[in-house]
Amino acid sequence: MTDDLDKLRTGLASLPPAPDPAAKAKAVAQAMESFERAQETAQPPRPISDRSQRAGFVTGVREMLMKLTTRPALTMTASLAAIAVALTIYPTLRQGAPLPQAAAPKPVAAPATAPAAASLPAPEDTRTTTGEVTAAPATPPAEIKGQAPAQPAPGVVLLEQRAESDAVAAVEGPSPQDFADTGLAGGPLSLTDAAPEMEPMMEAAPATVAAKRVLPDALVPLPEPDTEAFANAPSNPVMIAAEDPVSTFSIDTDTASYAVIRSSLSRGALPPPEAVRIEEMVNYFPYGYAAPDAGAPPFRTSVNLFQTPWNADTELLRIGIQGRLPAIAERPPLNLVFLVDTSGSMQDADKLPLLKQSLRLMLPDLRAEDRVAIVAYAGSAGTVLEPTAASDRATILAALDRLDAGGSTAGAEGLALAYQVAEAMGGDGAEGHVSRILLATDGDFNVGLSDPGALKDFVAAKRDGGTYLSVLGFGRGNLDDATMQALAQNGNGTAAYIDTLSEAQKVLSDQLSGALFPIANDVKIQIEFNPAVVAEYRLIGYETRALAREDFNNDKVDAGEIGAGHQVTALYEVTPVGSPAILNDPLRYGAAQDNALPDATGDLAWLKLRYKDPGASTSRLIETPVSPVAGAADADARWAAAIAGMGQLLTGARYLGDWGWDEAIALAGGARGDDPFGYRAEALRLMRLAQSIAQ
Amino acid sequence: MRMQTPDEALAIAAANGDREAFAALLDRHYDRVFALSFRLTGARSEAEDLAQDICCALPAKLASYRQEARFSTWLYRVTVNAAHDRRRRAATRARAADGWGDWEVNRRAGIAEEAEAQDWLSATMARLSPELRDTVALTLGEDLSQREAAEVLGVSEGTIAWRMSEVKKRLRDFARAEGML
């Protein structure tokens, strides 16, 4: 029937009448506007040293906007002090030296003086600015040294610590005198020492500088915003025990970072350093910690000290916390509300379909008295499944099958509806039920969310109503890890990233009774090192969980939760007094009396834990001394150390010396232990992958 | 003048920030984008919105233009993809908002002769799947060869040929169904 085909052709050909000139003019005008904006926001795909000055600033603005607006972790308390430091440091480094990548391949130890100066621009500048760099850390006083004003804002810590470690990095290079002596070539060369820190600085610091210059331009919508955002801060610096003996942080039972790393490595790419949170990697693995006794506090702490694998002159202090193992038969019934993102971006195979499979896997582990509801959000939110007894599996499965991806994401609306459903489930005579919302999303909270801070506040307010919120991340591409972290942390839940069905099983089925059933809330750890025994210490990981010293005793300050059977591990690298590994020289002036510190106890440190029983508003305190006697490391300890080493190798390995992937793999290979689920074997495989990718 | 400069050169210049080149490109191609948008959506207002969205996104998109394809082919691809995105976004809002679906709903309202011819077209288009509709819009509407259409849609030439034979089959079925009424 070619006739019909011809008819179709004629019809289509006659169809579009000439475009309306007004519409055309409007479209063209808008396109030209968009073109102008694009010129202003143009930037090369990779930050290389020959990019234009302007592009650099714009990148900075964009970074800043990301942090100030889309990253809910950052609340209003951004420290002016930190910004001031960034302002002082950043322009100097920028003009004084090319970016580290460019500097690295040229170890031109130019012999001092004039010839060198001739070959490089503006010698005077560099010399003076170097002076400023070293001076910078001195200008911002107390608050930059140590804990950020903390609580509601891991994000704040992020900015401040960034600035702080940048400052440290800058000081650790050769002194200004060295620069002057060797001429300019010394400048870029020595800066390569600080290379790992330069990168974050290029992201964080220019923001503030750029803010002053091109802010008005930058407020227009940017053409292609980054879609993956990760919550992190640069690694904790080495602290001097005599000056700052107290370290405070909130425990963290999330494991999302490890799964993100696995997904990156499996695709043949190193994970972005900001996606690596070492504590989440270490906590991913089960360890054989002793369980708490009956009648004792709901969790038990075990502390060991052993030699650091990457530095024979320091020791690792491992703090292991084991939550009471769930009495499976006695767990309270659950009200589960699955809040499922069904936006168009969820249609990939590793998103909604994987989520459906995961939930199917979980169903058999639920009990008859548990109840399940499903709320979908996309475009407009809706209840897909009214609260249903878990025994009615057919109804639940049918509802799952109805889920279909399409539309844009109205995260805030969906969340409100989910809380409403959860509260209704808790309110209709179901005494003793534990209510929990499981938010499954690729993190694309892009519509209906005018203010990320408001969403977070909303979750924090609902948290006090007794409903917990956990976040399950799916897929890559626009994973908004930062939002997920912030929501889970504020909603008293955990954040997990699910990339495979076996991960879904680990997160949902294996831990169903645990992760979903809290036994202690707001668990904080504070450790005071004894300066008579410990010269320096460094907390490995937990950057996003740092708390201010005074927050430890403040029950209003939120912290991490422990579910039944949960385990938490924290590692400190401790340098004993007299060790050759001490990084900081003693002060020449003042502080000499520190040598006369009383050493009545001989303890290494004093460990304090605070926690609240579920539903309680006042905290309980557990205190215990830490013995300075180092023991042998058992397989679990060596494994934790190997994973911490892996995390540091992925983020720059600043403190690892010559210790590299070979050593990490050897250490991990000898510490696999029992490994019934093959988690450790998988990690070993990932280490080998990372090694070959990194080469 | 710019009149003789090939599209491809203009596109590269525009991607590098040449304002005039961009304006020239827009002027040359807006009508084409609008026409294809119209054929893909079947409604003037939809087509105007779509064309405007595409023009606005063009500066950012140009950065990814690699000269592997002719500019017009590339632009067709951008247009088809934008139409897909729009359709997908609209899908959950309401099935009926799917462009040609509106035509089908309003079909019975048409009385005039001319409208009747349009009716047949819209009814036919509405009954084709999105893939077939895109293929028809490009091959019959824009008069592209099967090879060019394949390039735009990112499928093989064989697929286009198969789709066109599917279209013929559907048309035959429709005609038979009409005849039996």
UniProtKB/TrEMBL annotation, chain A:
Residue stretches making up the VWFA domain: 335-516
Superkingdom, natural source: Bacteria
InterPro entries referenced in this protein's UniProt entry, alphabetically: CLCR, Uncharacterised_YfbK_N, VWF_A, vWFA_dom_sf, YfbK_C
Biased composition (Low complexity): 21-31, 114-137
Region named Disordered: 1-54, 114-149
Protein name per its UniProtKB record: VWA domain-containing protein
Species of provenance: Albidovulum sediminicola
